[in-house]
Amino acid sequence: MIEVENLTKQYGPTVAVSGVSFNVQKGEVLGFLGPNGAGKTTTMRVITGFLPPTEGKVRVAGFDVAEEPLEAKRRTGYLPELPPVYPDMTVVEYLAFVARIKGVSRRDIKMRLDETVQKCAVGDVRYRQIGKLSKGYRQRVGLAQALIHNPEVLVLDEPTAGLDPKQIIETRDLIKGLEGQHTIILSTHILPEVSKTCQRVVVINSGQIVAVGTPDELTRRLQGFETVLVTVEGPAAAIIEKFQRVAGVNWVEPRESHDSRVTLEVHSEKEKDVRAELARATVESGWKLFELKTSGLSLEEIFLKLTTKDLGEEAAAKSEKAVN
Amino acid sequence: MRNVMAVAGKELRAYFHSPIAYLVMTVYTAICGFVFYSSTAFFALQSFRMEAQGGMGMPALSINEYIIRPILGGVLTVVLLFLIPLITMRLYAEEKRSGTIELLLTSPLTDMEIILGKFLGSLFLFAVLEALTFGYFGVLYIYGNPNAKPLIANALGLLLYGAALLALGMWFSTFTKNQIIAGAVGLAVFLILYLLDWVSAFSQSTVGQVASYIALTTHFDNFSKGVIQLSDVVYYLSVIILGVFLTARSVEALKGRP
Ligand SMILES: Nc1ncnc2c1ncn2[C@@H]1O[C@H](COP(=O)(O)OP(=O)(O)OP(=O)(O)O)[C@@H](O)[C@H]1O
Ligand SMILES: [Mg+2]
C-alpha cells in the first residue's frame, strides 16, 4: 500500500534521509521508530507529498506521489507532528472545511463528519473553538482531520506526543480500533507505543534503516538470555548468593533496594525458566517474596542497542539477511 | 473551482473572525468619511460662493471633480498602501507558522487552487471595503446628481488597483512565518512603488517615464477622471498575474525548505 524505494532527502547540505526502502502492506500498522532527528518526519512528509524527494520513489495505493500527487493525496490522511488546526474555527467548521478540500462530496460531508466525530470522540466539543481545546482534544481533532475522507492510507507523525498518560492510552486505543480498516504508518520515539500498536517496526537512525521486524522478532534477535526480576525482603548479599547457586542462573545483579527490600535482576540461560526455582529458594530461606516477573529485554534497551552505532550496524546486517 | 471556493471561504471566514477585517474596515471608513465630509463641505461652500457671485456663464462645479476624485485618486489609493498589507500579511505566513500549510499542501489541491482561493478570499474582503466607500457616494445620489459613468470607472479602477496590491502582498507573505515581517515588506515595497511616481515628476528622461509606468498609483489617474483606458486595465491585470505567478514560484520553492 505504501512503497518507499531508495528514498533520499537532503536539505541543502544536510542529508536527512538516505537510501530508505520499505513497504507497508494493506491493512498493516507499521511503527516508524527512531530517536530525535532520525528522519521520521522527513520521510512522512515525502510520503504525504508535502516535500519532494531528492532521490527515490514513493508510491501510495499504487500512485506515484511525484507523478500523480492528487490521486495519492486523495487516498492519504496525514496527522503532522503538530495538528494542523485553525484555532479560531469550531471543530465542526474545521472538519467540514477539511472534508471539502479532501474532496468529500457535498452529499457525504454530513455523514463523514458524524462518523468521524464519533470515532474520534470529539462529540462533546464539536461546537467549541479548537484554540480553546486541551492538547488531548486538539490531537484527536487532528486525527479526525486525517480520517475525515476515509483514506486508505494513514500517516501519523508522533500521534501521542505531548499527551498525558490517560490520553496516550485513549489515542492508542483509537489507533488500535482503526487497524484493518486503513493501512497505517505511525512514527514515534516512545517505545512501548510500538509493541502496543504496531505489527511491524522499522527502526531508523541518522536517516538510515537499522532494523525491520515485528516487535517480538527484534526482541529475540537482540536478546541472548532471559531476565527475571525478583523483589525479596531479606539480606541482600545472602539472597544474591543463594540465587546464584540456582541451576540455570548465569548471574545476578541488584537493581534497587528499599529499606530491607531488594529488587534483583536474575539472568539465566536462554529458554530456561528459573522462576519456580527462585521462588522455592526464597521461601526455603524464610525470606518474603514480593514480586517475580520475567523481563524481556525492554524495548528501550533494544532501541538503545540498535541506535548506538556498532550494534546498530550489526542488527542492520542481520535484518538485511532476514529480508533477503 | 469547488476547491478554490473552499479555500476562499476559509480565508474570508478567518478575516471576519479576527480583529483585522474590522480594524481595516474601521480605519478605511473613518478616513473615507472624513475626506468625504470635508470635500463635500468644500464643494458646497464653493458652490454657494459661485452662486453669490452670480456665477453667470460659468459651468456648475462637478461633483465628480470635487468629491469623488480627491477621495479615490488622492487619498484612498494611498491609504490602501497601508491597509492592504494588513489584509495580505497573514495569507501564507500564518499557515506556515501554525503548520496548517502541511494540511493544505497534502490535500488533493493544486498549488494554483490554493493561491487563487487565498487571492479571492482577500479580494472579497476588499470588495466589501469598496462597497462601503461607494455607500458614501450613494448619499450624493440622494442629494445631488453625480454622473454614473465616472463612478463606474472609479469602482473598476479601485478594484483593479486593490487586486494588484493584494496579489503582490500575497507573494510577500510566502517569504516568512512572521506576519509582521510579511506586512512590513509589503508596506515598504508599496511605498517605493508609490514614490516612483514622484521620481517621474522630477525627471522627464526615460527613467522617469519607466518609473511612472511602473508606479502603481499613476495608472489610477485615468480611472479617477472617469476614463477607462485599456492600457491601465492591462497594467493592473499584468501586476495581478505577476503576483499570482510569483506566489506560485515561491510556494514551489517553499517545499524544498519548509
Ligand atoms: N527544513 C529543514 N531544513 C534543514 N534541515 C532539516 C529540516 N527539517 C529537518 N531537518 C534535519 O533533518 C534531520 C531529520 O529531521 P526529522 O525532522 O525528519 O527528524 P525526526 O525523526 O522527525 O525527529 P523528531 O523525533 O525530533 O521529530 C534532522 O537532522 C533535522 O535537523
Ligand atoms: Mg519528527
How is the secondary structure organized here?
The complex is a heterodimer of chains A (324) and B (258).
Chain A: E1 2-11, E2 14-24, E3 29-33, H1 40-47, E4 55-60, E5 63-64, H2 69-74, E6 76-79, H3 91-101, H4 106-119, H5 135-147, E7 153-157, H6 165-178, E8 183-188, H7 191-197, E9 200-205, E10 208-213, H8 215-222, E11 226-233, H9 236-244, E12 249-258, E13 261-268, H10 275-284, E14 288-294, H11 299-307, H12 309-323
Parallel strand pairs in A: 3-8, 3-9, 6-7, 7-8
Antiparallel strand pairs in A: 1-2, 1-4, 4-5, 9-10, 11-13, 11-14, 12-13
Chain B: H1 2-16, H2 19-52, H3 63-88, H4 90-98, H5 100-105, H6 111-143, H7 148-172, H8 179-202, H9 206-214, H10 220-224, H11 230-254
Helix pairs in contact in B: 1-6, 2-3, 2-6, 3-6, 3-7, 3-8, 4-8, 6-7, 6-11, 7-8, 7-11, 8-9
Largest interface: A-B, 33 and 27 residues
Number of helices of chain B: 11
CATH topology of the largest domain in chain A: Rossmann fold
Mean pLDDT of chain A: 85
Bound molecules: adenosine-5'-triphosphate, magnesium ion
Strand fraction of chain A: 25-35%
Mind telling me the CATH class of the largest domain in chain A? Answer: Alpha Beta
Radius of gyration of chain B: 20 Å
Q: Overview of this structure, please?
A:
The complex is a heterodimer of chains A (324) and B (258). Chain A has a 6-stranded mixed β-sheet, sandwiched between helices. Chain A has a 4-stranded antiparallel β-sheet with strand order 2-1-4-5. In chain A, strands 12-13-11-14 form a 4-stranded antiparallel β-sheet, with helices on one face. The longest helix of chain A is centred in the C-terminal third of the chain and has 15 residues, at 309-323. In chain A, strand 9 (200-205) and strand 10 form a beta hairpin. In chain A, helix 3 (91-101) crosses helix 4. Chain A contains 12 helices and 14 strands. Chain A is elongated. Chain A has helices spanning 40-47, 69-74, 91-101, 106-119, 135-147, 165-178, 191-197, 215-222, 236-244, 275-284, 299-307, 309-323; strands spanning 2-11, 14-24, 29-33, 55-60, 63-64, 76-79, 153-157, 183-188, 200-205, 208-213, 226-233, 249-258, 261-268, 288-294. Chain A folds into 2 domains: 2-214, Rossmann fold, CATH 3.40.50.300; 221-323, 2-Layer Sandwich (Alpha-Beta Plaits), CATH 3.30.70.1340. Chain A is an alpha/beta fold. Chain B has 258 residues and is mainly α. Chain B has one domain (2-254). Chain B has 11 helices and no strands. The model of chain B has no long low-confidence stretch (mean pLDDT 84). The complex binds adenosine-5'-triphosphate and magnesium ion (MG). Magnesium ion binds at residues 40-41, 81, 157 of chain A. Magnesium ion (MG) is lined by residues 40-41, 81, 157 of chain A.
